[in-house]
Write a structure and sequence with these properties.
Keywords: Coiled coil
Structural class: alpha+beta
Amino acid sequence: MTVSTEQPKQPPVALEPEKDVKAKSAEKFGEKIGTGCSKEYEDIIYVTAQRKFWLITKEVTEQLDESAALMSKRVAVTDRLERMQQLDKAGLMACFASPALSSFLRDEDKLRFDELDDRITKIETSNKKTLESAIAQSDATRRRIDIYEAENSANESLRNDILSLAEERKQLEEKGRKEALAKGYIEENGRLYSPREIKISGLIGIYCKYREASKKKAFTENDFFLKREAPIWELLTHYEKLLERTEKEKKVDGLLKEDITKRIEHLESVLAEYTKVILDLADLGIATPEFALNPESQRAGTLSFHDYMQLDKELDSTAKSIVTEFDKWCAATGDRATPPSSVFIKNQNKYLETQEKSRLMRQQAEKNLITVKPYRLLLWDPKAYTPKPVDSLVKASIPLREVSMASSNKPLSHFSLMDLRSYANKGMYELLKNTKIKGIAKADEDAAFTNYLVEKGCKSLEINAEWFEKGLFQPEKLFKFLDQEHFKVKSIQSPSSQKPWGENLQAMIFEDDTLRQLALFDNSYPAMFVRMLGVGIVPAIHGRAEVSGPKLKDKKLAGIELGMEVSLARGEVDILDLKLPDPANIKPITLEYISYKGEPKVLELGEYYLEINAKAWGFVGASLILARDLKVSSEHGKLGISGSDDAIEKTTETVKDASVDPAKPKETEPDVKLFFGAQVGCQVTGQLKWKPPTNIRPAPPVPGYARTNAWNTLAKLEVSVAGGAGASLHGAFSISMKDGRLRLNAKASLFFGLGASGSVSFEIDAKSVSDWLRMIRTALIENDMHRLEWIDESAFSYLSKLSFLGIVTMGDIAFYAAQTEARVNQLYDSMTNGNRASLIGYSIASFPDKMGYKEWFAGLQPEAIGPLLHTLCSSPRPFKAADSSETATAKSFDSTQAIVYQQQAIGFCIEWIAQSPVKQAFNKTQPNEAQRQFEEAVSRMNPHGVTSEEPKLDFCKNLYRLNKFMEEQTGKLGAERTAIEFRRSEYKNNISILGQHINHLCSTQVETSPLGFISDAYNKTTTVYSGQK
């Protein structure tokens, strides 16, 4: 066999054109920038999420420039809906997950968790329906059997099914918890928090300790030179001025200067930690009163706040002294002498003056913060702060990237990895399918972007600890390192190109202290999102700029456009001095309710608007910039605002298969929409302003009180103060008591229109309580003196006690409302015991301004009048009293004179009820408002103003008691006898008019006892009510 050695014929080789060959041959080995072993690169970038530098090639520089320009073009679109559509195409709107522990599980574990959760829910729902069906059985025997079987079945399913399923779910949840902790989140009670929130909470705890210590003289010292005890802040100021003076005087002994300097150093060391925690909170966006009162000088601010706390002590001591002095006076006289008017008036005026000084100091603090950049939220009451949970989680598949490019004239550039799809390999998109949750405030591995850069011949540089000095990044050390390692970067060859980029880096890079970094530059994706939207209008990283926000869609708030300030470094959006609605276009709010007769009623509640300052961060801040509409919402009574857009659900696409569109990773369906009212990333402070309705009753006769049409501050909105309404509010509006304070609870839509969701709850300011009482009286008259369904029992009782105290003392209701509920109860109880009857009778009968009393009585709730009449019917006792002048000599009155004042006071009270304005005439069958007020008040003649199960019988018994007391003869002659006889005659006439619908249905039989001449108590009295119950 012959073997051929001939090779197969090869196809001809196609040569490149000659000019191209020349071009290639002219290129020296290693000259192609960024390839092979070369150390020459086109540009250098800092990737904020990675906290890492990259030396990049010319090819990558051009591709990143192109992608960043495309993103800038999208962000610059003025039409908000089109802009969101453009961002959605870039893959930025669908990479979020709900903030739950289960979101941190791997895909198979997440599916199993959802399956378990669904099965448990179905079993529990089925058991509940079975039990409800059994309870609904009409047959009693069958019902008991079915209920027993349903409960037994539920217990069996609990043992056999739910417990084992719940245990498995718990184990998966624990896995999610561990993963969440590893990602940098903190979990408490099933809610996830960022390190920032936990840091703020921890600092506030430390701050509270220092603040309490300052109240106990921990920051005061006895000073040798001043020869007195003084606050350290005051001493520091004194010694600094002294040092300044000694330095000007050349003859001063050097040892004296040294002593003064050491004294200053000692005082500063005592304050160091206190001052540090105030500044740390300010770095995190929270202003304590010490900071707010003087942002430029913490020492001066702390000294001012020390003055404020002294005012606070004065308020507390004045309130205590009023109660103490009242009790001392009464105890010293055996309850036989009335305290002079000055015991109330003088101390009340002092209290109100001090309160006004406190208010002005806080008002100044609020004004100061408006001028400080960046804006901080005022936290006047640190105990009110509650940390905010995260509103959404970011998946690892999010394609948004943020870099600082040395060659760019912008401080930061943003782009989507989706826009690099034509340049990258498929490996990057496989990595973008990752559904895991990204870590928070930590350097990110960022495998997808890293894969792209490495493939293109780029080189990464880890941040070196030697590049920092006192925690601050030193860019010249980075440039020196590049030179030492023989790296050549075209974009930073000259010092002039290094300087601006170096300054940008100093604004972003700090030593690896996560929490400090959050304070100065937040590298999280939510903050990155805000910077992407604001970088085009803010020239520097630590700069701020005003941007226009969304408009309010609801008709009630129409025309209001949000003015905002964007802080790039923090990724925050500040909303300053927002008024919702616009005060110039406000219409009165009305409350529709059903009367006791089942008839629809309308109550005018006055005019309201919110004066808001807010700080929004993360995706909520982004939503305010992006969205077309502003949403006012509330979660558990906590007010929030956010951007919203109904169209977002229509524009957010869901791609199930990457093969359909390689620009989108597989399984990008979001668990929560980005702009779906996520208001938990927004801290709101401000005031609820209120102008009372014009038809409410006149003000009580308080000296110096003048009615104005000015706006009142109805409530203060503290940062993160959770209200008490929330889901528990059944109607549109209610008044309740919480923690001893009066609260207004309402659907947010009542104030802010149908576009607002949830409920809000505000503590009613003490100064506004008097106006609210008059408004409630108007409603009581409209409701024929029947209870109002929108005021809960405890609140109504509290308001009645305030009214009572206002009557018997003629003091300012605001003063009593500012006290604790316990103090109000204490004073009320001391006033309603029978020993004070003569004192109160004298106060009413001798008070010169009877018209003031009459106006105050009109529409007064029966719960306040009843206890007053009950007290005035008590046995008269001798007493002493003086007029309102402090120099007046006290006069003594015996029990015979005392009864005259009590009878006169009762006569006046009944007369004022009879002369109340009414809408219909007095009637024997259909009682009008005054008749109802009289009946309800008499039936409540007891210390607590309550009725029994037989209120009509109570009325009859108490009417007999009133009449019997008014029949008591005084034994006086002359003018006094004439006056009291006239008052009795008027009393009888008014009683017959007011009670014409019920008096004739009451009858009382008295069986006289042989001892009856001693006291009526020995006689047997039987009272009967013969009408319909």
